[in-house]
Specification:
Layout (H helix, E strand, L loop, with lengths): L1 E3 L2 E5 L7 E5 L12 H28 L8 H26 L9 H23 L7 H17 L4
Antiparallel strand pairs: 1-2, 2-3
Length: 157
């Protein structure tokens, strides 16, 4: 990390998203000393937000008659455009969080964390975007099982 005046450049590994510029005047100091684990989780939340929009956002746009007449290939390309931003957060999250790169997580732990974040983000967005969808007891039971999966993934073998 190098400081040039009021800007800090963070190389984060993806050629499309090589540098993140953070102004020292607008962000608190904790962003500069954030742990790799916390940064990984924040990037995974951002990544999964974009991925959920790419996978399901077109359904909401279709429901609102905004893209009802689009051919399927146009919807696919539209979703890919959104998914590009998902990769701009996902790839650095995995690089920063992976134990072999100095991060705190094994490959399996990264994947399980990502799945829990993915389903959490999806649930929140589905409940907010699609009013006909609702959360039921069996969904909560499934989430409980995922939380147990995270617990077991972090147990020492």
């Amino acid at each position: 990390m190098t400081a040039n005046g009021n800007v800090v450049n963070l190389a984060i590994g993806n050629p499309m998203c090589l540098y993140v510029f953070i102004s020292l005047q607008t962000f608190p100091l904790f962003l500069y000393v954030m742990s790799n684990g916390l940064l990984t989780i924040i990037l995974l939340v951002i990544s999964n937000t974009f991925m959920t929009l790419a996978w399901y956002g077109h359904l909401k746009l279709q429901e609102n008659n905004q893209i009802s007449n689009w051919p399927l290939i146009a919807v696919i390309l539209f979703s890919w455009g959104i998914a590009l931003f998902e990769y701009c957060a996902q790839v650095p999250a995995n690089r920063i969080g992976f134990r072999e790169n100095g991060g705190p997580f094994s490959l399996f732990q990264l994947k399980i964390i990502q799945e829990v974040i993915s389903l959490t983000v999806f649930t929140i967005m589905a409940c907010l975007m699609f009013k006909g969808e609702s959360l039921h007891w069996n969904h909560l039971a499934a989430f409980g099982c995922l939380i147990m999966a995270v617990f077991f993934a972090f147990l020492k073998a």
